[in-house]
Description:
The protein is of the alpha+beta class. It is about 15% helix and about 45% strand. Keywords: Oxidoreductase.
Amino acid sequence: MDDQAFRIAMGKFATGVTVITTSIDGEAHGMTANAFMSVSLNPKLVLISIGEKAKMLSKIKESGKFAVSILAEEQKEMSMYFAGQIKEQREIDFEWINDTPVLRSSLATIVCDVYDSLVAGDHTLFVGEVKYLASSDAEPLLFSAGKYRNFEKVGS
């Protein structure tokens, strides 16, 4: 199978959208990702997957911590910005929790210390031990088949 066929098939799995952040010497760094999942309730662990070519890889290795901001439907522009789809530089008003930047108004915020990591193919899987979390009620930003999606409201 070729790489494109694999990407198309994997893109059929609808996901939420996150922005992964960390800081080095008080400077915030972020990237959009949809490779995120919960792992364990006891201890509370989550997993993110970062590509070997992503600048974020060395940043998380150096900082030993990361945050996951699960994006709400109205944060599509933040997703596009941290994915590099919006090129002009912007000043992001981060909230700082445990010396880690997170996006304000996210559907959920999860701040972690790196618990473990594993190189798997061309990605590194970081398992994070949750040190802080908060959530709110809003509709999630969704991604499937290379496009942003949203829930269609259906009568009950």
